[in-house]
Design brief:
By secondary structure, the chain is α+β, with helices and mostly antiparallel strands. Helix content is 30%, strand content 23%. It has 5 helices and 9 strands; from the N terminus they run H-E-H-H-E-E-E-H-E-E-E-H-E-E. Helix 1 crosses helix 3. 24% of the residues are buried.
């Protein structure tokens, strides 16, 4: 069995690997972590220069940590982001910390499958859409497996994003997403704005 320090060292590395930059509360979000040992491990990793303490402009929360070797490759602005479009799971490491997503991207996201239907804003199982390092919206999709058709019941576009640009981005991601869900065709029933 790993010691507390070995387990926490693993958690620190995996959290930073998944998120690029991680704040203390994102590393130690599980209450089972021994905070004293967590702080010792972080100090050891900073002292060895494996990780560095960083500050994210515009966010007052500190400390945050990143792998020292990766600091030069982390995009400093959206212009450094990839042009790819991704439809994310609500459980993706990039969006699982809802507070972090709101702080870093201004994207307020919540999975609504546990919300009564009448109170849902975006759909039963809405999925975030990330394009060029920016959240452009979310889709409420359903796979009609007998017909092998993916139906996007609603594409909700974020304010400040042109609907035509958002639709063009979504259209590039839908073929792969449909295939992943066992569908051969797809359609978008409705496009709305947040």
């Amino acid at each position: 069995m790993p010691t507390d320090a070995e387990m926490i060292r693993f958690r620190v590395r995996e959290t930073i690997r998944a998120q690029g930059v991680a704040a203390l509360d994102q590393i130690g979000h599980q209450r089972s972590l021994n905070r004293r040992v967590l702080n010792e491990v972080l100090s050891e990793l900073v002292e060895s220069r494996e990780i560095s303490e960083v500050t994210i402009e515009g966010i007052g929360r500190t400390p945050s940590f990143a792998f020292t070797d990766d600091l030069e490759t982390i995009p400093r602005s959206p212009s450094g982001a990839s042009d790819s479009v991704r439809i994310l799971s609500p459980f993706d490491a990039g969006v699982i910390h809802r507070k972090r997503v709101l702080e870093l991207f201004g994207f307020e996201y919540q999975i609504e499958c546990y919300t009564p239907a009448a109170k849902r804003k975006h759909g039963y199982f809405s999925l975030p859409v990330l394009a060029s390092g920016r959240f452009i919206g979310r889709i409420d999709a359903k796979a009609d497996r007998p017909q092998r058709r993916l139906i996007v019941r609603n594409f909700v576009v974020e304010s400040g994003v042109k609907i035509a640009d958002a639709r063009a981005a979504l259209d590039t991601a839908l073929p792969e997403f449909a295939a992943f869900n066992g569908c051969e065709t797809w359609s978008v029933s409705r496009t709305t704005r947040v």
